[in-house]
């Protein structure tokens, strides 16, 4: 009896630690692994509108932009099979920040893609 119980208990613990929910930058909850870093942040001395326009251009160039919220300044796009969220907000009067979150199809984090998108946004900003 104890031999049958140990594998079942191990499988239940493994399932509990690997499945869960994570929150996106637009405030929603999605199924996936909550462990792992998935968000990259950059701060720039630009207005929120300049960064938001650059982020829209980058996401449209790399994939398909299918979610835009102009009130909270968030974007959602599909790049290959990955989902990318971008949020832009003002930190100080002349400093704005951009946060980029990327997740793979199964819900695991993709920090490499988030970093690449954040760099492209920085390069797309007007001088």
Describe this structure in words.
- The protein is of the alpha+beta class and 127 residues long.
- The chain has a domain at 37-124: Alpha-D-Glucose-1,6-Bisphosphate, Chain A, domain 4.
- It contains three helices and seven strands.
- Helix 2 packs across helix 3 (111-124).
- The N and C termini lie far apart (70 Å).
Q: Using the 3D structure, state the CATH architecture of the domain at 37-124.
A: 2-Layer Sandwich
Helix- and strand-based class? alpha+beta
Query: SSE string, helix = H, strand = E?
Result: HEEEHEEEEH
Which percent range describes the beta-strand content? 25-35%
- Helical amount among residues, as a percent range? 25-40%
Spatial strand arrangement across the major sheet: 3-7-6-5-4
Low confidence ranges: none
User: What does the overall shape look like?
Assistant: elongated
As for the CATH topology of the domain at 37-124, it is: Alpha-D-Glucose-1,6-Bisphosphate, Chain A, domain 4
Number of helices: 3
Largest sheet: 5 strands, antiparallel
Q: Which CATH class of the domain at 37-124 is shown?
A: Alpha Beta
Distance between the termini: 70 Å
Q: What's the alpha carbon Rg, rounded to whole Å?
A: 18 Å
Mean pLDDT: 87
Strand count: 7
Write the layout of secondary structure elements.
Blueprint lengths: L1 H17 L2 E3 L5 E3 L7 E6 L3 H15 L1 E6 L4 E6 L2 E11 L2 E9 L7 H14 L3
Antiparallel strand pairs: 1-2, 3-7, 4-5, 5-6, 6-7
Helix pairs in contact: 2-3
